Amino acid sequence: MITRLRHPVSTKANKVPASVSLGSGIWELKREEIALLKELGSGQFGVVQLGKWKGQYDVAVKMIKEGSMSEDEFFQEAQTMMKLSHPKLVKFYGVCSKKYPIYIVTEYITNGCLLTYLKSHGKELEPSQLLEMCYDVCEGMAFLESHQFIHRDLAARNCLVDSDLSVKVSDFGMTRYVLDDQYVSSVGTKFPVKWSAPEVFHYFKYSSKSDVWAF
């Protein structure tokens, strides 16, 4: 069996939790300070709930669905978000990794995903407002490219609309850091069919250009 090497090989027998690489002293949040209020949505791999942090801050709390992915894969999204900070990207606050279920905590965006918002309010928006939304996404994606990240899952469902109608890119579970603007996924890896570029279908190759195709 052949698999992708994701971490350096160690000769030490003892194992450490995946959360150690997060720098838990900085990013570890106190679970007791987060109150879960209601479910905002769910997907194949996780559930997102509205939470209240420290009794005053609204946050979005993402939890892994049992058996849907490994803990290591779930933490990879958090590790990616730590490295990214931009007004047009959803802000990362931290994780709760000491107990299960594990939380990834981000800012709460009032109007939810762009796809749902456009279905319910799209006809009320002026062309200039729609164009501004597109520009917001471009800003966020340009920042990712400038820092050598490929999103790999850009879609309206993964963009969020704030109270001022600004749009932020979210969901970095498939995002990868690359040195040469190219990432080749393993054969059999799931990908969003409707938004994927031809080279993804034929060669499993992702780049900033395939992100443009998805846009």
UniProtKB/TrEMBL annotation:
EC number: 2.7.10.2
Compartments in which it is found: Cytoplasm
PROSITE patterns registered for this protein in UniProt: PROTEIN_KINASE_ATP (PS00107), PROTEIN_KINASE_DOM (PS50011), PROTEIN_KINASE_TYR (PS00109)
Domain of life: Eukaryota
Single GO term (MF): non-membrane spanning protein tyrosine kinase activity
Binding site for ATP: 62
Main subcellular localisation: cytoplasm
Gene Ontology CC, one term: cytoplasm
EC class (word): transferase
Swiss-Prot/TrEMBL keywords: ATP-binding, Cytoplasm, Kinase, Nucleotide-binding, Phosphoprotein, SH2 domain, Transferase, Tyrosine-protein kinase
InterPro entries the record matches: Kinase-like_dom_sf (IPR011009), Non-receptor_tyrosine_kinases (IPR050198), Prot_kinase_dom (IPR000719), Protein_kinase_ATP_BS (IPR017441), Ser-Thr/Tyr_kinase_cat_dom (IPR001245), Tyr_kinase_AS (IPR008266), Tyr_kinase_cat_dom (IPR020635)
Ranges for domain Protein kinase: 34-215
Gene3D superfamilies assigned to the protein according to its UniProt record, in alphabetical order: Phosphorylase Kinase, domain 1, Transferase(Phosphotransferase) domain 1
Reactions listed under catalytic activity: L-tyrosyl-[protein] + ATP = O-phospho-L-tyrosyl-[protein] + ADP + H(+)
UniProt entry tagged with the keyword Transmembrane: no
UniProt entry tagged with the keyword Nucleotide-binding: yes
PANTHER family membership: TYROSINE-PROTEIN KINASE
Name of the protein described by the UniProt record: non-specific protein-tyrosine kinase
Organism in which the protein naturally occurs: Castor canadensis
Gene this protein is translated from: LOC109697331
